[in-house]
Amino acid sequence: MPEFFQQTLNGLSLGAIYALIALGYTMVYGVLRFINFAHSDIFMVGAYLGYYLARLVPAASVWGGLAVMAGAMAGCALLGILIERLAYRPLRRGPTLNVLITAIGVSLLLEYSGQIGFGAEPRTFPVLFPERDVRIGSLVISSSQLVVIAVAVVLLLALQFIVHRTRIGTAMRAVALNPQAARLVGINNDVVISFTFGLGSALAAAGGILYATNYPSIDPLMGVMPGLKAFTAAVLGGIGNIPGAALGGLILGLVETFVAGSPWSTYKDAIAFGVLIVILLFRPAGLLGKFRIEKV
Amino acid sequence: MPKPHLALLAALAAAGIIARFSGLIDPYYLDVLTIVGINIILAVSLNLVNGYTGQFSLGHAGFMSVGAYLSAAASLFLGPTLLGSHPSAIMEGLFFLGALLAGGAAAAAAGLIVGIPSLRLRGDYLAIVTLAFGEIIRVVFQNIDALGGALGLNGIPPYTSIFWVLAFAALTVFVVTCLVNSTYGRGFLAVRDDEIAAAAVGLNPTRYKIVAFVVGAFFAGIAGGLYGHFRLTITPGGFDFTKSIEIVVMVILGGMGNTPGVILAAILLTLLPEFLRPVAEYRMIIYSLLLIILMIIRPQGLFKLRPGGRADKGG
Amino acid sequence: MPFAFRRFSWLLMAALVPVVPVAGQDTIKVGEVASLTGKDADFGQSSHKGTLLAIEEINASGGLLGRKLVLLTEDNQCKQGESATAARKLISRDKVVALLGEVASSRSLEMAPIAQASAVPMISPSSTNPRVTAIGDYIFRVCFIDPFQGTVMAKFARDTLKLHRVAVLTSVSSAYSVGLAKYFKEGFVKGGGEIVLQQKYSEGDKDFKAQLTVIRAAGVDGIFVPGYYTEAALICLQARELGLDAPIFGGDGWEGTPLIEIGGKAVEGTYYSTHYSPDNAAPVVQDFVRKFRARFEGETPDAMAALGYDSAMVLAEAIKRTGTTEGPKVRDAIAATRDYPGVTGVTTIDAERNASKAAAIFTVADGKFKFVESIAP
Prior knowledge:
The structure holds three protein chains of three kinds. By secondary structure, chain A is mainly α. Chain A has one domain. Chain A has eleven helices and four strands. Chain B is mainly alpha-helical. Chain B has a two-stranded antiparallel ribbon with strand order 1-2. Chain C is an alpha/beta fold. Chain C folds into two domains: 198 residues, Rossmann fold (3-Layer(aba) Sandwich), CATH 3.40.50.2300; 129 residues, Response regulator (Rossmann fold), CATH 3.40.50. Helices cover 43% and strands 20% of the residues of chain C. Chain C has twelve helices and 15 strands. Chain C has a seven-stranded mixed sheet with strand order 7-6-8-9-10-14-15, sandwiched between helices. Chain C starts with a helix and ends with a strand. The chains are: A mainly alpha, B mainly alpha, C alpha/beta. Chains A and B meet through α4, α9 and α11 of A and α5, α8, α10 and α12 of B.
């Protein structure tokens, strides 16, 4: 029984990270209708930014950790806006599949440049937040797990606030609903889209730092697997739907954890994907997605 | 004789001639040419699904692996008993053909299984499901010890020759082109352009989607079999989603639903990394930069040789 | 001609200009197929650096047979199929006399048939699956193989650590991990032990708490982790966090400074088998470490670098011994390598063309690697 609680905690912590990355995928999809393949690599850049910025702050301090995270989020927001401006905006008029190729190109570019620039060898991520473990019987709660869950919740709430209670958020929802109409009512789509990318990239950076805090080894290809899982989580929850991404992330994290702790651990990835397929069979637009009825 | 049939015969003859003189070609060039042929089969078969029928499939490498594993298993486990110790070239050739077709059939069956959930799913949901299937296939193969597990199968008999590859490439192009240009085949394009309208005029979109998946998967399986008997070793990890994405890039770069364009894109994207060898480590950086730049300056696909591409549905 | 074609013709023409190889007679060309980019790039780059150091060292002291050694390296991006194309190019276009590579068994298996068919000797620095050298008599390796290492660790676990009930945590997507686990299990059970639990993880995983939680509940004496140093370090960290104090041990994949950097206190008191450690006081090792650090900006060489170095040195020594670069003669010379004093141990190439050498068990004490015992074949 205590194992069940331990695994639940493990799953929630893993799920929180997937949720953070998934939020970025889903936001960009909601506004632009395309899957930003480069998102997982911005996650990686966020972790590396954290690695370098950490040298400027004292280790294992809450304020230091938050400052580094803020710095990395800002840096990646800029990177995301830059990528959008240079690589995606020229293709906005055309079919979305072309932007997909560009996104793949950007992803490969970031990965391989990272291998040359940062070196392929894994680096040890410094300790950003003070580490303390709480033990209740045989249940071990590590502080990093708690930090991950806490920060993810805070960021999710902040995101919901931005999207539903601010003007820019309303503008984002408008562009997501109907870009032409949004332009007609005076919204500057370019600004909104840049903002969306910046916000999504900032979330990816936060995810990267939290991931690196929990698993202190970073390398230029660290985003590939988590990115794939997070993308799956976003679709699971209904792509374009923000609470859906969080829900998808949590479900995926829990499923993966429980399967990993079972005799079927060798099929872990297959089962996680299998769950996705089964859920999509019954709810073709994801758990919280709206199935758009196309009117002829 | 209709033009496509003539073209096929000409291509087969050309394949035969090239194969006859393959001893004169430098082994490295021959190697690259063989890979080009395999990539053409992969890209053209995926084009049927993604380009002509508009179903965004990200799991093509999974079908390739099914074909590769089944045909390799046939050669390794059934081959010795069926062929005996000194088979003649004809016997070997027939056996190889059988193994390839068996691999293709298995892949087609997998295509059927993957195609069915696609009925309810649209666009990006379909993409993730096909990607999920591809990954599931990979994990399953990784766990089958009889098929080598994570190390995969090796010591596969080297049956693939340039003739087989070029012949099947020609055949794939022939089948896909004839299929799409037939009266029946117009249905694929109709499903792509507007599924509801297609249903409204009496077509069964379900059937077209499934046929596209099955035929596409069949040829991917053939390509897998050819690959396995060429490289002589296959691993589950070599058929992952990055491989699927490579094939998707060829299709999109070639212009979705533009078979000559897709063929040229397959050739270009196979040759490009070879040309970039002198720059070694920067090869992939240049490759990815080129991808980005190509899409920005020529978004309609590289080779717009004739109209018939996707109807632009506007921003 | 489509417009776009014109744009690319410059590219095609530039590439068709033949790259004239360095003139033949006064150089010896050795080919290397390496994982310089892609998912195993850290191992491939390390191995490549070791090989490069060896080649440069030989050239600095007058070359081989009076001729300069030229290393032609091709990257395979860790992608399936690329190693074969690279090998073919090196053999037929660049006319290399021998091939070095690859670090991963699956990629070596691609290159080996080509080398064998072209009668070009091939030495793999670190592919441990037995099937690689079984391809043919031109294929060699300078590392020990999975069966040997698995048995060594099983023996160590039973006899020295006195373990009875062990859990095995394997990476299901790594042929190395699966192979090593298989032979360990066989050896351990044969020695009277019990494999209580087998959990798996896969490539790219960083969270092992789920598997470790189940292992904790099973109450085992020790955990065998036949993986690479990054995962091993994280596994140790997470195990200790969960309060799992049983000894954790592994194979040569553990060797690397990131093990201590990432693992910190969690890896103290863990064990692993290897053929090399930078903290080994033997003069040949310290010499190598010093030269490597001088060449590569203070970087400490790991086992991959040491094996890359030895693979090149063994090849060179064989060529020197036989006085020619002809394939069959070099092959015979490599096969006759006896007690070569390599950085990774005294190496003898046995009848199966594998390196027969002792495995050294190391542990981590006070933040450094410490030698424990040596187990001979």
